[in-house]
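Researcher: Here's a chain I'd like modeled. Treat it as a single chain, no partners, no ligands.
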Amino acid sequence: MATQLMFYASAVPLSSQRHIGLSVKVGGDFGFARKANSVPLTAVEIPRAAADYVVVFAGQGDGIMPVVILGIEPEHNLFIKENGAWDGVYVPAFVRRYPFVFAGSADAKTFTLCIDESFSGCNRDGRGEQLFDTDGERTQYLDTVLNFVKDYQVQHQRTSALCKHLSDLGLLEPMQAQFTLPGGARRGLTGFMAVNRTKLKALDRETLTNLVVSDELELIYLHLQSLQNFNRMLQRIGAEPSTVPAAEGDEPAAHEEGDGAPVTH
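Model: Modeled as a single isolated chain. Structure tokens:
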């Protein structure tokens, strides 16, 4: 599935006719994200995520978004424990909204709330929270979910504007990271971008002032500082870095464009 729906195997529109009597049990089991080695972020999440993860940018054109790198191998999330618990201080909203998601119309003017019926927490045994009452009306829980997903969509659109601004300023450049696995095999992580600090410093005063006023400059520096977390992530599997993403605007390494998520080779 597309990156936007990476967890969702069977997302269908939510309706009282189809889903009355359905309950959803959510909690500390994030096993559904076990194969995600990166997930998108919204801009408002960067301050919290940057303290724990590597925050970079991925995608192309209007699809560029901030992402957190969660693993260095394909389909392997280093932040999921064997019991499905999340092994990190902050859980990205992209993960927390599962099994719910908005599906947009072709003109992107209307959105329909959907649910992944394959989620293990979906049940008709009364476990967790009901979505509709016996009259087919939305429960308070479903209203809370709807508000959360609405807010996520708004933040997603604001984040797209941020990324377009950084791209228009020419600040985003492709980067790569090289590391050695415990067995001696060398790997490279590519398919992501970082802000070039040298180009950032070269911006004119008015542009820099606008970045400060809009709080975008703060987000940029949080992103750059988060690149230091790559070493901490490698320590989870005992891997050794040979080249890590640099925050000083080093010459970017060439890479093939991927599908919007970091890839290992």
